[in-house]
Amino acid sequence: MSEIIEPLRGMNDMLPDEARWWNRLESVARDVFSQYGYREVRVPLLERTQLFKRAIGEYTDIVEKEMFTFLDRDGQSLTLRPEATASIVRAAISNGMLHNQRHRLFTIGPMFRGERPQKGRYRQFTQIDAEAFGYEGPDVDAELILIAARMWRLLGIPRDRVWLELNSLGTPESRADYREALRSYFAANEGALDADSRRRLAGNPLRILDSKNPALAELIAAAPLLTDYLDPASREHFDGLCRRLDAAGVAYRINPRLVRGLDYYSRTVFEWVTDALGSQNAVCSGGRYDGLVTQLGGEATAAIGWALGMERIVLLMQELSLAAPAEVPQVYFVMAGAGVAARGLQLAEVVRDAQPGLRLETDLSGGGIKAQFKRADKSGATIAVVLGEDEIARGVAAVKPLRGGGEQQECPFADLAGRLAHLLGTAAVDGDGAARQDRCR
RNA sequence: GUGGACGUAGCUCAGCUGGUAGAGCCCCGGAUUGUGAUUCCGGCCGUCGUGGGUUCGAGCCCCAUCGUCCACCCCA
Questions:
Q1: Chain A residues 137-196, Cβ below 7 A from strand B
Q2: Which nucleotide is at minimal CA–C1' distance from A372?
Q3: What is the DSSP letter of A129?
Q4: CB of A344 closer than 8 Å to CB of A149
Q5: What are A70-90's pLDDT values in tens digits?
Q6: Distance from CA(A180) to C1'(B53), angstroms, rounded
Q7: Which residues of chain A form CATH 3.30.930.10?
Q8: Is residue A316 a contact partner of residue A276, using CB atoms and an 8 Å limit?
Q9: Res A439: pLDDT
Q10: Lookup: nucleotide whose C1' is closest to A336 CA
Q11: Which A residues between 329 and 368 have a beta carbon under 7 A from any strand B atom?
Q12: Residue A15 buriedness (CB in 10 A; 0-12 / 13-18 / 19+)
């Protein structure tokens, strides 16, 4: 045996039991997007490094130390996307989608960040991403938040486990004023700061507000508030958003210390937070980025979006035991004897043609009838269909209910599809749980 | 990137102060030879994460490395 090749750190295989949960989340997301008229786009995973430097900000942690960047054969610098917004904006510009147009879009796919892995934080992770272009007012801000709230509701995530934090960063100008105020405040108290915060003091003092160091809590609590520096237009925009959320019955907490790690945000920023995932508590977050399109060479376009971490939501669903129904076969073909499987395969095709919705699994192991029955039972199937040399010769199948009683009966091949449908229909009316949880997506 | 914990069969784990690995589950077979979920019997399964070192001898000690998890950091 030769050496085993291990997967890369922080990159995971998704096996069938795991995929169930993902499919559920993805189908809910797709349904909701379709309800709101958001259309899917797909963009490349690989882009020029420059795109992310310009969009996310040269001096952010993501760009400085987390990107998977390499030179291709022609010596140009490429980067595996660490987030989707930059790529989508680039695509919108590249395809001329922003000339006097509005778009509401979503995308689903993997992102890459070279962080140290932890639960809920991986080097390849998957985001569901929603973006709206060309809408200036707070209506679309509210709509995007309502979309997320609807997803939580449909998934069965209770309101007290995921809640909304809200803030406004104002315009770049008002934020600059605030940054100076903050800088002088923390500079005056520099002795009380920890090493991380001192480093940020020069670069991005807003990030100090994010610190989880309890020793700084008091100092941070007394710091000047961004809210007090908002320009009137941003203030009005923010109030408008709050009113709309109030009207829609969406609860939120205004968090004046909520800032974002990406440079492109302006005005509205928000974060859906959970208490169920340890320190990886942000489950979906986003905000408005009105300046980004011009920054990337496009025409000035209002824009806003959010990204949802699928791994984290799936973890949350599992934590809360939110059912992800297993895909269980309804009918299981037991096929024992010489040459029986070949005929059984044909018969299974006939049944599938006649009953396209039916989940029918065949036992192709070639093993003994007893073992096949064990598998039939374990599969969760409601009905076993037995085919042996005898049955094949007589043109009949033995149909045996595996759950909730009922006698084994013979059924001519020609009637099999109808008989199975009938039996399964009856089983469902019985209120038999197993027969009912068959509806996965 | 920093600090810490952990890493034994496919899975969950046991293995006393170092003496050449064990349980349950799973899987396979059997209990009058074509009928499942209980029970009983039997069987398969490991280079004890990897590489070095100490020792007569290491799963247990030391070093390195990889990985997972926790906190920081970051963020979805």
A1: 196
A2: B36
A3: E
A4: no
A5: 999 999 999 999 999 999 999
A6: 57
A7: 16-170+230-319
A8: yes
A9: 33
A10: B34
A11: 336-337, 367-368
A12: exposed
Q: For A110-163, what is each residue's pLDDT tens digit?
A: 999 999 999 899 999 999 999 999 999 899 999 999 999 999 999 999 999 999
User: Is the model's pLDDT at A434 over the cut of 50?
Assistant: no
DSSP labels, A197-251: HHHHHHH-GGGGGG---GGGHHHHHTSPPGGGG--HHHHHHHHHHHHHHHHHT--
Q: Residue holding tokens 């995007």?
A: A144
A220 CA – B4 C1', rounded, Å: 28
ipTM associated with this complex? 0.88
Give the length of chain A: 441
Residue ranges of chain A assigned to CATH 3.40.50.800: 331-436
Indicate yes or no: strand B within 7 A of the C-beta of A255: no
- A357: buried, middle or exposed (CB in 10 Å: 19+, 13-18, 0-12)? exposed
* Nucleic chain B contacts, protein chain A, residues 90-109, CB cut-off 7 A: none
User: What is the value of pTM for the model shown?
Assistant: 0.90
Check residue A356 and give its pLDDT.
93
Please state whether strand B lies within 7 Å of residue A261 at its CB atom.
Answer: yes
What does the block give as tokens for A15? 């096996």
Q: What angle do CA A296, A299, A304 make, to 5 degrees?
A: 70
Class of domain A16-170+230-319: alpha beta
- Tokens coding A133: 């272009």
A307 CB closer than 7 A to any strand B atom: yes
Residue A309 corresponds to which tokens in the numbers above? 């971490």
Looking at domain A331-436, its CATH class is alpha beta
